[in-house]
Amino acid sequence: MPWFNYFLGTVLAAYKEFEERAEQIKPGRGAKTQIVTQVIERQSGEFAISEIQRECPGVSRPMIRVILEELRAKGKVEVLGTGRSARWRKRDNKS
Fold it and tell me: What CA dihedral angle connects 62, 68, 74 and 77, to 10 degrees?
């Protein structure tokens, strides 16, 4: 039975390594928020939600709106206009 014990030990070690690697691949909570925030940080000048949506295809329009509203509440972006044609702009917070 020593061969069988060796075989089981090898299988268990391989499974533990697989488990560790699988945890690293899984996106964590807030991954979409982080992606959208990074895209917004890269914007220069005015931008529309549709432009953000184009760069973040896996993120829904309502989710982008929620993130923009959070950033607006923090004073990091401002909205210019209303409705579907509204434009957004990063605020200069240097003062």
Answer: -160
Indicate the SS3 state at residue 85. Answer: helix
Query: Residue 80's beta-bridge partner residues?
Result: 87
Give every CB contact of residue 71 below 8 A, 6+ residues apart in sequence.
37, 40, 77
The domain 31-90 is placed in CATH, from the list 1.10.443.10, 2.40.10.10, 1.10.630.10, 1.10.10.10, at: 1.10.10.10
Tokens matching residue 35: 């992606």
pTM here is 0.65
- The 10s digit of each residue's pLDDT in 61-77 is 999 999 999 999 999 99
Give the burial class of 42: count Cβ atoms within 10 A of its Cβ; 0-12 exposed, 13-18 middle, 19 or more buried: exposed
